[in-house]
Write a structure and sequence with these properties.
The complex is a heterodimer. Chain A is α/β, with parallel strands linked by helices. Chain A is built from 13 helices and twelve strands. In chain A, α6 packs parallel to α7 and α10 packs across α11. In chain B, strands 1, 2, 3, 4, 5, 6 and 7 form a seven-stranded mixed beta sheet that branches. In chain B, α1 crosses α6. The chains are: A alpha/beta, B alpha/beta.
């Protein structure tokens, strides 16, 4: 199972001092967090993508390329890559380039973005969010799987005889996740292609998360990629730890109370009850996180949000240290103990996808197409 | 057949004149539906008791607390809704609006609604037609033609009782007729009501992908 960190990259003042980091400091702190993740034995670092203040990560492959050069083992990912407002041609190029530079340690997560004004800045309309995600991702798959692409769609200028360069490393496109909090169409999309599905559950109740993942798993099986329990699932998590629960709450409370999204709303205790947020000892974090598998089934990737709400960099690095040294080793062991035979521990990696060979269904643009034709004939 | 009637009342004081009007409407509706040979199951929702839960739901990006999830189910399962608000600053109260803001946009589609309001002065009487009726039109509810507005002085008049009776009679007709109306539209033209607590099944991907394969 893979464990890692995902960062939104927000510039938020520390509510206890009023001081906000500069953009330069925040960008460097994201890099420091990624390096710390590898140092303490975590598997993944994923960056957000934003095109509006107060966020800094507008250029994910630039940042991930730099981190790739300074790490050996860390899997580099996104949370998320905007499949709606980015040109899929540029995504194909940028992430193939990153694959080559990072020796294949790359996957990415598609997301739509929920900030309305960003869409018109890139010539799009948020009301087309789902059709944009569907069409742009289909083009991306073709660009990574066909040598020459002729394309005429609804959202971008046509292509004639276009070859995306560089081709994916070893002719093998990076593994793709689809992230969505509330749209069942995106779970359906992930299932159709046999891609991974990531539910960022950090602001949601477990009943909702269970419904989204269950839909993805059922449809993954329907489209012939394997049994429902073998579908590739990732979840988020949000924790703050100290030696005692009281100390964790004492330190974290002002950050919670003033946090973007939920600050000035429910109490820390209420939000802990409603969502996966865990503020307490490493043992409490272990127990709560293991419980996620009871909600969604045994899964493959767990990402934690650690650097937000204005927490100082040194505190975030200490937290990641605790996560990597005290929490994740226990989680690795316990999650494998409960995992049924036949349920993969890890999501596909570049190595496993290359090993599967060029004839594996992974290299088809629509691996589910035959299943659909069979279904249609039977009907 | 038992009709589930949900009474939503946004009064804040206790005792509340808004609740008083709600109770009178509920009793009149009970009598009017029973008079048509059907029984009524009345449930009263005091929004005051949900005030903090509503605020929590609104400040967490729409994550419903368990209490809000439960009332969303009640709304989506109701055969009719009696909605009563005090007039605050020339409109329905903020609490009243917060409640309808956390519902699924299809929670009340095609559902009979009786609108009513209380105020300290009769000069607010158009609030029913300028504020409440558009709100429920947006939600695709079927609003009974007669709404009931009660200023403080109306509680001493027989005219209020007459209006309550007339509104309850119209609303009861809509409630009792509702299943027939629905069965007449079973070709799919009528949108399904939803609580918003559970996911709709998405269209098959081939349908989403159609026209987008380049």
């Amino acid at each position: 199972m893979q464990f890692g960190i995902f960062s939104i990259g927000d510039v938020t003042p520390d509510p206890t001092t009023g001081r906000a980091p500069s953009e330069a400091e925040r960008i460097q702190s994201m890099v420091a967090i990624a390096l710390k993740a590898e140092e303490v034995g975590l598997d993944v670092f994923a960056t957000g993508e934003h095109h509006n203040p107060p966020f800094v990560p507008s250029s994910p492959t630039t940042m991930l390329g730099y981190i790739a050069a300074r790490t050996e083992r860390l899997q580099l990912s996104t949370a998320t890559t905007l499949i709606t407002t980015n040109d899929p041609v540029k995504i194909a190029e940028d992430f193939a380039m990153l694959q080559h530079l990072a020796g294949g340690r790359v996957d990415l997560m598609m997301g739509r973005g929920n900030t309305g004004p960003v869409y018109p800045w890139f010539g799009k309309d948020i009301r087309d969010g789902i059709p944009l995600a569907v069409e742009n991702y289909h083009l991306l798959r073709r660009l990574w799987r066909e040598d020459r692409v002729d394309w005429e769609g609804r959202f971008r200028t046509p292509l004639q005889g276009y070859t995306s360069t560089p081709a994916p490393l070893d002719g093998t496109p990076p593994f793709v996740w689809h992230g969505s909090i509330r749209s069942p169409e995106i779970a359906e999309q992930a299932a159709y292609y046999g891609d991974g599905f990531f539910h960022n559950n950090i602001f949601w109740n477990k009943e909702h998360t269970a419904q989204m993942v269950d839909l993805y798993r059922r449809r993954f099986e329907h489209y012939g990629h394997g049994a429902a329990e073998q579908a590739i699932v990732g979840l988020g998590g949000q924790v703050f730890m100290a030696e005692t629960e009281a100390e964790a709450k004492r330190f974290f409370r002002p950050y919670f109370d003033n946090a973007p999204v939920y600050g000035h709303g429910p109490s820390l205790e209420e939000f802990t009850e409603l969502t996966p947020l865990t503020v307490g000892t490493p043992e409490q974090v272990i127990e709560r996180t293991l419980g996620f598998a009871d909600t969604v089934g045994d899964y493959q990737r767990q990402l934690f949000l650690m650097d937000h709400a204005g927490l100082p960099q040194e505190v975030v690095l200490e937290q990641i240290e605790m996560l990597g040294r005290e929490v994740v080793p226990v989680l690795r062991k316990e999650f494998e103990l409960r995992r049924p035979a036949g349920v993969p521990s890890d999501p596909p990696t570049h190595a496993t996808l290359v090993a599967a060979g060029p004839d594996s269904p992974y290299h088809l643009v629509e691996p589910a197409r035959e299943h659909i034709l069979v279904d249609a004939e039977e009907a | 057949m038992t009709r589930k009637i949900l009474v939503v009342t946004a009064g804040l004081s206790q005792p509340s004149s808004t609740r008083l009007l709600a109770d009178q409407l509920a009793a009149a509706v009970d009598a009017a539906v029973s008079g048509r040979g059907e029984s009524v199951e009345l449930t009263v929702l005091e929004l005051r008791e949900l005030a903090v839960e509503l605020a929590t739901t609104l400040t967490t990006g729409g994550l419903p607390t368990p209490a809000i999830a439960a009332v969303r189910e009640q709304v989506a399962a109701a055969d009719g809704v009696i909605a009563v608000t005090p007039v605050f600053t020339a409109s329905y109260s903020g609490l009243f609006k917060m409640f309808f803001d956390v519902l699924d946009p299809d929670a009340l589609t095609g559902t009979p609604v009786l609108i009513a309001a209380t105020a300290g002065t009769p000069r607010h009487s158009l609030v029913l037609d300028h504020a409440l009726r558009p709100l429920f039109s947006y939600l695709h509810a079927v609003v009974a033609p007669t709404g009931v507005f009660a200023a403080t002085e109306d509680f001493g008049s027989g005219e209020l009782a007459d209006r309550i009776h007339r509104a309850a009679t119209e609303f009861a007709s809509l409630v009792v007729a509702a299943p027939n109306a629905v069965s007449g539209f079973l070709d799919g033209a009528l949108r399904q009501r939803r609580s918003g607590n559970s996911l709709p099944e998405p269209p098959p991907f081939a349908q989403l992908l159609a026209g987008h394969t380049g």
